[in-house]
Amino acid sequence: MLRRIRLAYMALVYLFLYLPIVVLIVFSFNNSKYSTGWKGFSLRWYGELLSDAQLLDAALNSLTVASLSATCATILGTLAAWALHRYDFKAKKLFQTGLFIVIMSPDIVMGVSLLMLFVAVQLEPGFVTLLLAHITFSLPFVAVTVASRLAGFDKHVVEAAQDLGADEYETFRHVILPMVMPAVLAGWLLSFTLSLDDVIISFFVTGPGYEILPLRIYSMVKLGVKPVVNALCAIMVAATVVVVFASQILLKEKK
Amino acid sequence: MTRSFPSGDEKSARRGARVQNDAIISLENVSQQFDGTTVLHDISLSVKNREFFTLLGPSGCGKTTILRILAGFETPTSGRVHIGGRDVTSLPPNRRKVNTVFQSYALFPHMTVFENVAFGLRMSRTPKAELQARVAEMLHMVELEGLEGRKPQQLSGGQQQRVAIARAAVNKPLVLLLDEPLSALDAKLRKQMQRELKHLQRRLGITFVFVTHDQEEAFSLSDRVVVMDQGRIEQVGTPIEVYEEPVNLRVAKFVGETNILDAEVLGQEMTCPDGSLKARVEGEERACLLKAKRPFGEGCRVKVVLRPEDLIVHSHRPSAEAGLSLEGVVDETIYKGTTYDIAITLKTGKKLLVTEFFDEDDEKMIVAAGQPVFVTWIKGWEVVLPDDQA
Amino acid sequence: MTRPSFFKVAAIGGTAAWLAVFALLPFLLILVVSFLARDPSSFVAPSFSLEGYATIGDGAFLRIFLDSLAWAAITAAACLVLGYPFAYGLARLRTKRKNLFLLLIIIPFWTNSLIRTYALIFILKAQGLLNTLLLGLGLVDQPLEILYTDTAVLVGLIYTLLPFMILPLYSSIEKLDPRLLEAAKDLGAGRFRAFFAVSLPLTWPGILAGTMLTFLPALGMFYVADVLGGAKSLLIGNFIKNQFLTARDWPTGSAASVVLTGIMILLLLFYGGSGKGAPRKPEDIGA
User: Fold this and answer.
1) Among B110, B134, B180, which would you mutate to test the A interface (most chain A Cβ atoms within 10 Å of its Cβ)?
2) pLDDT digits over B261-280, tens only?
3) CA A140: distance to chain centroid?
4) Given this model, what pLDDT does residue C73 score?
5) Does A153 reach chain B within 8 Å, measured CB to CB?
6) Nearest beta carbon to residue C113 from set A35, A112, A197
7) A to C CB pairs, distance under 8 Å
8) Which of B83, B328, C35, C139 is least surrounded by Cβ atoms within 10 Å, i.e. has the fewest?
């Protein structure tokens, strides 16, 4: 009996979480300018999306920043995870705390503090500042993902590599990296998603010349519902689902 | 494998400190400390070229630490390490001509058998043709032909172990280090692998340094054995030396079953040239002669060590020619197939274990629990040791 | 291992340098600026001043702060109450499809929060799904005016942050050894007693983690207030945003940021202190 109540409750929560998004997606196909009633199935908003140059531009920018920052964050994060796993150095605790703080920090504090940094060095807010900010907040997530994979390794594998003549770099490149690759790729996907999803930090560090998708949506929805936005959101949700599935598969691959 | 007993004194048997001309490894006064705890105390050791050398001892005795120092994974707190004539004390593992077979095998899971075995050759930039040939030859030697394309997860424990050995040996190191490589195998496979390892060592002609806590394994494989306890070397010698002539009670107890009799020395027996002692054993009235390797003063308390197979059980008191006979009662008998074990309690309360080869036709040998018996031992097989509380 | 390898130095040094420049340094700047005086033309004047802190300690602003803290607390509490039974049920699922159900929670977790907030509009507005349902079922006569009120913002916060509470809770409950509950029941505890005496304390780390992951963001997510609350509602996040971009009062904005960080550090210390004290494995109990 209790079990049934539990399952029913779970179903309710799933409903609560998904209903608004489902409604949103449904209305993206609504052949009406207003979302008051269903006026038939239509793809016109998707069509309008494709012809909205400004939106497409923003989308391209978002994808560019996401891919680039994900790549850099993955490289740095993987090296960080490896350094923490392999070496014992004096500032290790400090280093770990630093990573932890970046993960836990409220977005708004990161956003304004980075803004301040860029102003202080007189760096124009735009593509570069955005990229730097995104790499910074993604880095620790990659590090954590890769580190947890590394934790499961037989420590003798590294010794075996050394024993057979590999130096630090060769050990990393030929032995560790291949073994940890699924986590590295998952980390990349994670960073990519984080970048596309970010609103608050991007809000402060980007400039008028470089528009990105979340901020474009933000300025559009402050004024209420817009059907084109529905279509855009539907696509982004679909993209997220794909990425989540992909990263789960990667993380589950090896035992 | 017959060697004559060296007549060296106990100190030399303990340290083996003489660095010999054909020594491929020498450790000089190596000490190791971790977090304030001393794991190795002033170890000096030398290993001969092409020798099968085993470090034997209970867990925590320091044998694995020595192996890791030889491999280069640990740097000793003090002392020097020489391999192949070079001082390698501070040389990192990837620069030493030494390879290790790990207890957990540590095979690279994402590489095939071939790639695993070829790894070391790849790191030393061996030309492709030579690499292929050597890997193939090595796989043939360990009987893994045909499995080149498999990944470690697809292999059995025994096969993985051979890959680990092949991966290390293919590099033709000066020394091959093996860290309890057989401990994960079941008994039958273990015995088989022991034979194969021995053959392999002979064929490769490489020095093997082997670590184990299994005394039987150590004895069946090794040319020489080091018995260690708590970071110190107790004895170095051939298996026969260590078993038949242990230098102290610790070694005696570790390398096999022991019967330890208490005795009091009455004096040196002048009539015997081999340094026999006259002593009173287990409080017996009649004194007897004991063979001793070192002098003991009058009144000294000593321990007489006898292996189970050195003792003989008699249902009736034997004649005086058999030597001193001790009275006792049988506790229980254990039939083991090849051998027949008899547990006896002497009238002094001391417990003994006697092992005899089972002879179906000998009715005299079967005794029953509760039966009074007499125990003698084969003259000259006893070892007299000082009474240092082991 | 006596000579440090280039690779090792590069790996550690590179990432440490990045963090130092882009995480530590900016925060230090905030800290410093919070103690500077305001300058209309160049944002800050290089002279020590406690103006920033004074402004946020002032009555009107203080109220916004406290209100925002209250909302964040309600959000966290609501997420905990709603999320715990769910996480418990999910952890107890004995089906091969368990991973799929877990995935279904992970998806909203990774979906853009702005999009999810926006999607709520469809439900909450006057002709939205909720009202249509309520009217249709005859539960109300008039459509409820929820959108553009504080309630909408609260619902938005809870909606957006619920997965952030569920996942840490799930992770913690998953590790719970069911045999402990069996032992408790064996010793005579009823279901509720067993829960409060065994399950709850052992999942404390998950509760703490979830609370931090919902409370802190609830203070800063200004876009939820903007999209669902109209111009009326203010979170600490909105306040900071305004200080920096509209009012151009950097010291005040920085002071508010420092306070926000202070709250985070307090929570982290609390987590570190009591989170570790709470027993997590059977061996810990009675130790």
Assistant:
1) B110
2) 888 888 776 666 666 788 88
3) 12
4) 94
5) no
6) A197
7) 230
8) C139
- Does the CB of C1 have a partner CB in chain B at under 8 Å? yes
Helices C98-110, A2-28: crossing angle, 10 deg rounding: 50
How would you classify the pairing of strands B37-48 and B23-34? antiparallel
Domain ranges of chain A: 1-42, 53-224+232-252
Cβ-contact C64, C270 below 8 angstroms: no
pLDDT tens-digit map of C201-246: 888 888 888 998 899 889 988 888 888 887 666 788 888 888 888 8
> Which residues of chain C make contact with B92, given a CB cutoff of 8 A?
1-3
Contact of B75 with chain C, judged by CB distance below 8 Å, is answered with: yes
List pLDDT tens digits, range B152-193: 999 998 899 999 999 999 999 999 999 999 888 888 889 999
Whether residue A167 lies within 8 A of chain B, CB to CB, comes out as yes
Please give, rounded to a whole number of angstroms, the shortest distance from the CA of A141 to a CA of chain B. 25
- Residues of chain A in contact with residue B119, where contact means CB-CB under 8 angstroms, are 161, 164, 166, 174
The confidence score (pLDDT) of residue B49 equals 92
Could you report the predicted ipTM of this complex, rounded to two decimals? Answer: 0.83
Q: How far is C23 from chain A (nearest CA, A)?
A: 7
Q: pLDDT averaged over chain A?
A: 87
Whether chain A has a CB inside 8 Å of the CB on B102: the answer is: yes
With CA atoms as reference, the chain A residue closest to C28 would be A113
What whole-number distance in Å separates Cα of residue A150 and Cα of residue A158? 11
Across the interface, do C89 and A222 touch by the CB < 8 Å criterion? no
**Cα atoms in the Cβ-side hemisphere of radius 13 Å centred on C215:** 21
In DSSP notation, C201-268 reads: HHTHHHHHHHHHHHHHHHHH-HHHHHHHHTTS---HHHHHHHHHHTS--HHHHHHHHHHHHHHHHHHH
CB within 8 Å: A165 and B167: no
And the tokens for C120? 């709520």
Give chains near B: 3+ CB pairs under 8 A.
A, C
Three-state secondary structure readout of chain B = CCCCCCCCCHHHHHHCCCCCCCEEEEEEEEEEEECCEEEEEEEEEEEECCCEEEEECCCCCCHHHHHHHHHCCCCCCEEEEEECCEECCCCCHHHCCEEEECCCCCCCCCCCHHHHHHHHHHHCCCCHHHHHHHHHHHHHHCCCCCCCCCCHHHCCHHHHHHHHHHHHHCCCCCEEEEECCCCCCCHHHHHHHHHHHHHHHHHHCCEEEEEECCHHHHHHHCCEEEEEECCEEEEEECHHHHHHCCCCHHHHHHCCCCEEEEEEEEEECCCCCCCCEEEEECCCCCCEEECCCCCCCCCCEEEEEECHHHEEEECCCCCHHHCCCEEEEEEEEEECCCEEEEEEEECCCCEEEEEEECCCCCHHHCCCCCCEEEEEECCCCCEEEECCCC
Flag if A109 and C114 touch (Cβ within 8 Å): no
Q: Is A99 on the interface with C (CB under 8 A)?
A: yes
Chain A CB contacts of B94 under 8 Å are 162-167
Residue C283 confidence (pLDDT):
34
Q: Do A174 and B119 touch (CB under 8 A)?
A: yes
Domain topology for A53-224+232-252: MetI-like fold (1.10.3720)
Mutation pick from A3, A13, A175, A219 vs chain C, by most beta carbons of C within 10 Å, is A13
What is the arithmetic mean of pLDDT over B3-8? 43
Q: How many CB atoms lie within 10 A of CB A185?
A: 18
Domains and CATH numbers, chain C: 63-285 (1.10.3720.10)
